[in-house]
Design goal:
The complex is a heterodimer of chains A (about 250) and B (about 375). With about 250 residues, chain A is mainly beta. In chain A, about 10% of the residues lie in helices and about 55% in strands. Chain A starts with about 25 loop residues before the first strand and ends with a strand. By secondary structure, chain B is of the alpha/beta class. In chain B, about 55% of the residues are buried. The chains are: A mainly beta (about 250), B alpha/beta (about 375).
């Protein structure tokens, strides 16, 4: 059977406490940059918990949102995720993420389990390229670009559902869980281009040993994003076929 | 209705020094038995880098070995990836002709373009180009087989005049097929006068619609080869056992394992935004439909269970217009070899005779041999 992660599940015990509920969020005109690279195989299983399979080949999925308008005000969010499979389902694991707004960080963490930390997140778009740069602790931990954009249909882009590292109240105890977040996108425009990764610090993203080395793709889109109601969790410690559980049993 | 067997050649971890050898030997033993039992065809895929799911990167070699241990079963190259980073069209034509000769005119020639980033990225192929190069190749390969000397100035391929040798034994050439995974590809097959080699399962209703449209469209085709190969070939799982419950349970384990392995791969669409791959291709969006069923029930279209149930299922496939069914017999050896062989024997004894006296397939133009 496929390889599974070997990472210590204690690494997933430090996420935010999930407190789902509240009014729905629809975010108009979100700019979404996604850059995908293949990862060196060597460290692959050490990045994932036993509940997840690595993809063949292993991938790093960088996603950045510039959100001009939200109930928490404008914000910019950056994620660096590991492409994986929860059983047979395509997913992307997020251990650490960065966001430039304290109010947005609070809402994203509590309602959808985003493991977000404070950082300066620069999202910029020019006619020849689009990029996201994240500065944390006085250093650049991510600098990812889409180069030479060409127009495509938003329907040609596929975003993987994210598994956010969080903690959840279960039977009176607080336990580590991966929270499935799968927003809906209504596209206004989309581009693709060459991916270019100028800086990536795996430690900062909770992915020690992750070595992105082979460019795959880059896309940029403008879309209305509807944040989902949460339904599924993954217990990182269980084997893949036994790990998925419902948020509300 | 004709029956065949279909190989991805999946190899279970852990990979010991002889694991692949043993899986290949098991496959060859199955092929030899299938030939003796009267199965009509054996197909083998061309896949690269698909860990566990398929270790069948050189199907021409495996199929030649099959031809050497059999007498009658037809040899299906399913499929040649018609993408220059994978294969040269000249080499593909030469290898196919040689296989046809050494098999005594038993080759079926499948074509396709790959559907995973695992493979396309691994070969540095451009996903935007694969449909175009496939379309170019399926037009020039039959000319290489039938023209004494072939020269060509094309878009993705050109060559000065040369004699492409050898020529196939079957005249004018072996039947040509298109691997159909993406919705709409069956119409590409019809428009070019090629057989539809279905590689996804799907339910009866979905397949019936597709087959009806294929039959309608092929009437107006512009054939790429020297004749029209109007045939619909589908893939299914087979596990036949006297005990229906055991047969169904084992068959579902086989189907579930196969699909689980397929899902671990990276579909082209999941990695690279392109209009060229509008869906997940070989990944089992459609297979899921065929293999999911309410708790305690057997998915409607699968050939698993006892012979009576399988006969009923095949009759339904026949009624929606399927000409041939190819069976996947195993996935990472999840079914012991002796049970696979017993399943083949029981199927041949109890199921095949029910379809032996049927009229010829609905494809009068399907004349592959000389």
């Amino acid at each position: 059977m496929p390889l599974t992660g070997t990472r210590a599940t204690t690494d997933f015990e430090h996420g935010p406490l999930l407190q789902p509920g509240g009014d729905p969020w629809t975010l108009p005109g979100v700019q979404v940059l996604q850059v995908m690279y293949e990862l060196e195989q060597a460290a692959m299983t050490s990045l994932l918990p036993p509940a997840l399979h690595p993809t063949i080949p292993p991938t790093l999925v960088i996603t950045a949102w510039r959100v001009p308008e939200s109930p928490a005000g404008p914000f910019t969010l950056a994620e660096a995720k590991v492409g994986c499979r929860a059983g047979a389902r395509p997913r992307a694991l997020s251990v650490e993420a960065f966001c430039d707004s304290a109010e947005a960080r609070g809402a994203l963490a509590a309602r959808w389990g985003y493991p977000v930390r404070d950082a300066e997140v620069e999202f910029a778009r020019r006619y020849d390229r689009c990029w996201v740069t994240v500065r944390s602790g006085g250093r650049i931990v991510l600098d990812a670009h889409l180069v030479d954009p060409e127009a495509i249909s938003g329907n040609d882009i596929q975003y993987l559902a994210t598994l956010n590292t969080a903690r959840v109240e279960r039977d009176g105890a607080t336990v580590a869980r991966l929270v499935q977040v799968d927003p809906e996108y209504q596209f206004h425009s989309a581009d693709r281009g060459m991916p270019e990764l100028l800086a990536f610090d795996g430690e900062a993203w909770g992915l020690p040993g992750a070595e992105p080395y082979w460019p795959v793709s880059a896309s940029f889109a403008v879309a209305d994003v509807t944040m989902p109601e949460l339904r599924y969790l993954v217990d990182p410690a269980k084997p893949p076929l036994a790990a998925v559980e419902r948020l509300h049993a | 209705m004709k029956f065949g067997i279909f190989y991805e050649i999946s190899v279970p971890r852990p990979w010991g020094p002889r694991t692949e050898y043993e899986v290949y030997q098991n496959c060859l033993e199955q092929v030899k038995l299938a030939d003796e039992l009267g199965f009509d065809q054996v197909w083998a895929v061309e896949h690269h880098f698909l860990e566990e799911y398929s270790h069948c990167s050189a199907p021409e070699v495996f199929l030649t070995a099959c031809a050497m241990v059999t007498k009658n079963i037809r040899i299906g190259r399913g499929i040649v990836v018609c993408v220059p980073e994978f294969n040269s069209p000249v080499k593909a034509a030469e290898v196919a002709a040689t296989m046809d000769i050494v098999s005594g005119g038993r080759l079926e020639f499948g074509t396709g373009r790959s559907a995973t980033w695992t493979e396309l990225g691994g070969m540095s192929a451009d996903p935007d180009e694969t449909k175009k190069t496939w379309d170019e190749w399926v037009r020039i390969i039959p000319r290489m087989w039938t023209e004494e000397r072939f020269g060509y100035q094309g878009r993705a391929f050109s060559m000065p005049q040369r004699a492409v040798l050898p020529k196939p034994l079957q005249k004018p050439h072996p039947p040509m097929w298109v691997a159909v995974t993406s919705p709409g590809t069956e119409l590409d097959a019809a428009d070019r006068g090629m057989g539809s080699l279905g590689l996804t399962f799907g339910g009866f209703a979905e397949q019936e619609k597709k087959i009806a449209e294929y039959r309608r469209r092929i009437r107006y085709c512009d054939p790429v080869g020297s004749f029209v190969n109007e045939q619909v070939n589908t893939v299914n799982f087979l596990f036949c056992h006297e005990d229906n419950e055991y047969g169904a349970k084992t068959g579902q384990r086989l189907a579930g394992t196969f699909n689980y392995l397929a899902e671990q791969l990276l579909a082209a669409r999941q990695a690279y935004p392109t209009r060229s791959y509008p869906n997940l291709g070989l990944l089992p969006a459609l297979r899921r439909e065929a293999t999911s069923a309410p708790e305690g029930q057997i998915p409607e279209g699968l050939c698993i269970g006892n012979p009576d149930r399988i006969v009923e299922v095949i009759k339904k496939w026949e009624s929606v217009g399927v000409d041939r069914i190819n069976f996947l017999l195993n996935a990472i050896e999840t079914v012991p070899q002796e049970e696979v062989l017993a399943s083949l024997r029981l199927f041949a004894k109890e199921v095949m005779p029910k379809f032996a006296e049927k009229p010829a397939p609905r494809a009068p133009a399907a004349v592959g041999g000389d």
